[in-house]
What we know:
The chain is α/β, with parallel strands linked by helices. The protein has helices at 20-32, 49-61, 75-84, 121-129, 163-173, 213-222, and strands spanning 2-5, 40-43, 69-72, 97-102, 106-107, 113-114, 131-139, 154-158, 179-183, 200-206, 226-229, 231-232, 238-243, 246-251. It is built from six helices and 14 strands. The strands form three sheets. Strands 1-14-13-7-4-2-3 form a seven-stranded mixed beta sheet, sandwiched between helices. Strand 2 (40-43), helix 2 (49-61) and strand 3 (69-72) form a beta-alpha-beta unit. The longest helix is centred in the first third of the chain and has 13 residues, at 20-32. The termini are close together. Bound molecules: ribulose-5-phosphate. Ribulose-5-phosphate binds at residues 44-49, 102-105, 115-121, 124.
Amino acid sequence: xxxxxxxxxxxxxxxxxxxxxxxxxxxxxxxxxxxxxxxxxxxxxxxxxxxxxxxxxxxxxxxxxxxxxxxxxxxxxxxxxxxxxxxxxxxxxxxxxxxxxxxxxxxxxxxxxxxxxxxxxxxxxxxxxxxxxxxxxxxxxxxxxxxxxxxxxxxxxxxxxxxxxxxxxxxxxxxxxxxxxxxxxxxxxxxxxxxxxxxxxxxxxxxxxxxxxxxxxxxxxxxxxxxxxxxxxxxxxxxxxxxxxxxxxxxx
Length: 252
Ligand code: 5RP
C-alpha cells in the first residue's frame, strides 16, 4: 500500500524551499515515529540515517522514549550515538533487532537497494538482516527503476589481499553488462579506502542491466576474497520517501 501524507515542513501554500537535507530529515523523523519504548533499534549510517539517530536521542532526552537499545551499523554511527547518550549494544548480545532505520543509495519499486557508497555495507547488512522490520528512508532522488542501472557505483567489500585479482574477477563476472571496476580511494590521501572491518571496497559500474539480482548476488558471493556486496535484496520491509510534494510510505 502506498499512502500520501502531507509533509509537516511543507504545509499547503507554504513558500518554503526544501533542501535535499530537509527532505532527508523529514523521512528520518517519520521513520522514528515507529520506534517504541523498549525496542532494540538498528541505527543506520549516512546523512539521512544521521537525522534518525539525532531524533531518537532527542526523544530519549525528552523522556518520550525509554529503554531503547541501539545497534550501530558503523563506527561513525557508534560515535554519534555515544556522543548523544543513546545506550548501545551489539548483535552478540541482541541477535534480534526490532526495527532498523537506514538510508540507501538506490531503491527500486520492489524495495531492493544499493547501499554502501558511504562504505558501511557489511555491518549494515548484518544488522538489517537481523531486523524484524527494516525501514528505508530516502529523499526522492534515490528512486530508480532497476538497481545497478543508474551508472553510479555498486560497492563490493573485498579483503585487501590481491584486491586487483578480485576486481578482475568481478568485472569478468559482469562482462555482459559492460562492467568496469575501481578500487575506492580516500580523496585526501589517494590511499585505498579502508572499511570499519579493515577491508577495501571495489566500486562496480554497469553500462547495461545486471539481470537477475539473486543470480548476480550469488555470483559475487561465490568468488573467494569477496566479503559482501551492496545489493540489499528483499530485506527492506518499508520505504519512506520525502519529496517536495510530501512523504510517501510504502510497505511490503
Ligand atoms: C552507507 C550507506 C548509506 O545509507 C547510503 O550511502 C545513503 O547515504 P546518505 O543518506 O548520506 O545519502 O549505505 O554505507
